[in-house]
Structure formats: C-alpha cells, structure tokens
Amino acid sequence: MSNVFVIGAxxxxxxxxxxxxVSAGHNVTGLSRSSANDNWYQQNQVASxxxxxxxxxxxxxSDLMAGHDVVVFSAGAAGSGLDRTQAIDGDGPVKVIExxxxxxxxxxxxxxxxxxxxxxxxxxxxxxxxMEVKKQADAEVAxxxxxxxxxxxxxxxxxxxxxxxxLGKAIPYGTVKRGNVAKVLASLIDxxxxxxxxxxxxxxxxxxxxxxxxxxxx
Length: 218
Ligand SMILES: NC(=O)c1ccc[n+]([C@@H]2O[C@H](COP(=O)([O-])OP(=O)(O)OC[C@H]3O[C@@H](n4cnc5c(N)ncnc54)[C@H](OP(=O)(O)O)[C@@H]3O)[C@@H](O)[C@H]2O)c1
Fold this sequence. Notes:
There is one protein chain. The protein is of the alpha/beta class. Helices cover 39% and strands 23% of the residues. The chain has a single domain (3-217), classed as NAD(P)-binding Rossmann-like Domain (Rossmann fold, 3-Layer(aba) Sandwich), CATH 3.40.50.720. It has helices at 14-23, 38-43, 58-65, 82-103, 125-142, 178-189, 208-217; strands at residues 3-7, 27-32, 47-50, 70-73, 107-111, 147-153, 155-157, 164-168, 175-177, 197-203, 206-207. The protein has a nine-stranded mixed beta sheet, with helices on both faces. Strand 4, helix 4 and strand 5 form a beta-alpha-beta unit. Helix 1 (14-23) packs parallel to helix 6 (178-189), helix 3 (58-65) crosses helix 4 and helix 4 (82-103) packs parallel to helix 5. The two termini are 26 Å apart. The mean pLDDT is 97. Residues 7-14, 31, 33-34, 37, 52-54, 74-76, 78, 88-89, 111, 113, 153, 155-156, 178 line the site of NADP nicotinamide-adenine-dinucleotide phosphate.
C-alpha cells in the first residue's frame, strides 16, 4: 500500500486513476485547485489538499506532500495559453521534483506526450510550444536521481480503458484511451521495479499486465 499524491487528480486521466488506486488499496490525495471538485473527492474516497500548481511555492507543496511515497503528475494547461502551459506543464514538474527531494520521496510518474503527436498537422504555435515544454519537463525529470517513470501517451481519446495496449521504449505513434493510460499508471505504481524508464503508450492488443511484464523482462 502506498500513499499517492496526484497533481491532476480531477483531470480526465486523473478521475479514472484515483478510483483504481483506491480499489487497489492505496491512499490517494489530490492537489485540488477548486472546491467544484469537493463532491468528486468525497464520493471516490480520494483525499484533497488545496493548491494551484501555478502559484504554490515549493515550500508549500513540500508541506502538502509530506507523508506520501509516490507522486503522479497528470496536470496540464489543456491549451489554455502559452503562459499557463509553461507554468503548469513546464514549471510544475520542476516544483514537484524539488518538493519531493525535500520530503525524500523517490517515486514520480509523469504523464508526458508522445513525440510524434501532431506531426505534419500544422496545429499551430500553441501546440508546438506545448510539445517543447513537455520535452523540457521530461528532461528535468530524467536528470534527477529519483525513481521516475515518464509515460508518453499517444493522442488521448476520452474513452474508458479496455486494457489492451501497446507500450515500449519506442513504438509507432497512435491514439490511446484515457482509461488505458490510467490502467497503465495504476499498474506501474504496483511495479516499483520499473523505474527510470520512458514508456511510450498507445492502444494495442496486449493486456496491460502482460505488456508491463514483457517491458520489465526486456
Ligand atoms: N490531449 C492529449 O492528446 C494528450 C496527449 C498526451 C499527453 N497529454 C497530457 O496528459 C495529461 C493529462 O491529460 P488529461 O486529459 O487528464 O487532462 P485534463 O482533463 O485537462 O486535466 C488536467 C488536470 O490538471 C489540473 N490542473 C490544471 N491547471 C492546474 C493548476 N493550475 N493547478 C493544479 N492543477 C491544475 C486540472 O484540474 P481541474 O480538475 O481543477 O481542472 C485537471 O485535474 C496532461 O499532462 C496532458 O498534457 C495529453
């Protein structure tokens, strides 16, 4: 059983992940920026602490994270502007790393982006910047001595998971159901031996547990 701190707990991935972790016996706490989600937290037995990753200080975040042993970062600016993309997707993980170090928390799971997403689609300056910032955050995390796992999902579909995925260090680009991303994160949290890895993820035809077991063996 782990004490899991989730940034982005009420996002479309986070809302699927939290209940999975709770049913697996973990204690889950979300960083909540709005009381609008209070009912969801109560109904799903996920604890919440108030904070906004944009303006929270490292010291405040560190205090909120005390007592946890796993951190998941699945927050995102979701196209709400370049400044917010930098502050949430870029600077957020950097604050998280520092807060984890202060608490001696070792395990971090970062939801990043698939490098080939949006290529040749001319999705505009905002998307290009988003991809750049996501890569910077990956580099910040990978440069630490933490036990990190960076998950790079393909383009997300807002669907429940059927548990059939393709994953590996480098795989062809594709889409992935958010429910499958949540399942992979939940399973990874129960497989601490998989650490310091970047995992690309799409929908596929392997069961999550089999795919992760094959990944671990490889
Ligand atoms: N869209 C794609 O195709 C795609 C592909 C690959 C990876 N990703 C990445 O996947 C991750 C999760 O995706 P998703 O679909 O679950 O995202 P989402 O539904 O947009 O959820 C984002 C989460 O971040 C939280 N958040 C936003 N601003 C915040 C702030 N200032 N302080 C604290 N929390 C804040 C939101 O809180 P509230 O609930 O309060 O709004 C929400 O819980 C993101 O990092 C995204 O970049 C997306």
